[in-house]
Amino acid sequence: MSRLEVLKELLEEQRKLLPALRQSNPARAYLLMREQRETVREIAEIQGNGQVKGVTLADQLAEARAARAARAAGA
Q1: Where on the tree of life does the source sit, at the highest rank (predicted)?
Q2: Is the dihedral of CA 11, 12, 13, 19 positive or negative?
Q3: CA 50 to chain centre
Q4: Helix axis angle, 3-24 relative to 26-48, nearest 10°?
Q5: What is the three-class DSSP state of 7?
Q6: Which structural domain, as residue segments, surrounds residue 31?
Q7: Predicted local distance difference test score (pLDDT) of residue 48
Q8: CA geometry: angle 28, 32, 38, nearest 5 deg
Q9: Which of 56, 42, 52 is nearest to 11 (CA)?
Q10: CA 40, CA 62: separation in Å to the nearest integer?
């Protein structure tokens, strides 16, 4: 699961929790709204950097290892 997918899932969970928290615990709702803004900012940053959706850390590590192996074989 990519970082972008995790953040989108987190944002969806936050949006589900917010209405109930506004009634039961306004202070916690305020903190959750601040957390939501940060999550949205991170999503926008990832999408703005042109990262390919679905690229996971494992994919990035595999690519780096392959590049290192190619350099080692060529050197």
Answers
A1: Bacteria
A2: positive
A3: 14
A4: 160
A5: helix
A6: 3-74
A7: 79
A8: 150
A9: 42
A10: 28
Residue 31 structure tokens: 């903190």
At residue 2 the predicted structure's pLDDT band, cuts being 50, 70 and 90, is confident
Using the 8-state DSSP alphabet, how is residue 52 labeled? P
pLDDT digits (tens, 9 = 90+) for 10-56: 999 999 999 999 999 999 999 999 999 999 988 888 887 765 556 67
Number of domains in the chain: 1
What is the greatest pairwise CA distance in the chain? 65
For tokens 């290192």, the residue is 68
pLDDT at 36: 93
The total number of residues written for the chain in this structure: 75
Stated pTM of the model: 0.59
Tell me the CA end-to-end span of the chain in Å, nearest whole number: 35
CA pseudo-torsion sign 43, 35, 2, 60: positive
